[in-house]
Amino acid sequence: MTLILTALCRKGICICADKRNQTWRGGTKVNVDNLNKIFRFKNSPIIMFNHGVNKFNGKFWDVLCSEYEQTDRWKGKRLKDVALDFKEFIEAELIRQLDQNARNFPGNANVTTSAFVICGKDLYSGKFEFYELFWSPAHSFGSWNDTRLIGSGEGYKKHLENYLNLHPQTNSTEFWGNINTVQAGTELRKLFLIALNEQKSVNGDDFSVNFDIDSISD
Description:
Number of strands: 13
Number of helices: 6
Mean pLDDT: 90
């Protein structure tokens, strides 16, 4: 359950992420809205985030991101190659967890899918890019980069995707390519609130009211 919006804009990338975290207490599912879903590398213009399954064999997603950063194996690589290298780093552990989830919770797709997004500045081309690594129940893998707004999570699919289909100018390369990260943060906040209002109108509870905004820029 999440809503994360990522915009590749002029000279940067901006991310708006809700703070929903689901946990279990005494056999009851509980929403705790205090999770920072954005992981920033300390000494490099790279940000990662996760949606879907976020705990793998006892380790939360950001712990794995931190462990990967500390290996330094990403240094000197193009951003696309960082994404593929991170895939190699995490995949065995991730698939082991998804397989276990599939056995323990048959028929529940929510616990058998996971995705990581790698955003940043390619040190060779100087361009800002982002890539998604996605694992489905069949363990298929896909990646992409684009120059527009990307939405992640059930909150996006249920409460914002239709609005963007009706307002395609808000989802165009021209719109986002002409604004900087500060302006993009304002626009992402507006879209988040539109999704929040839609969620309230149908008595939904797919993502948190509060959110974090972070960005990378020149």
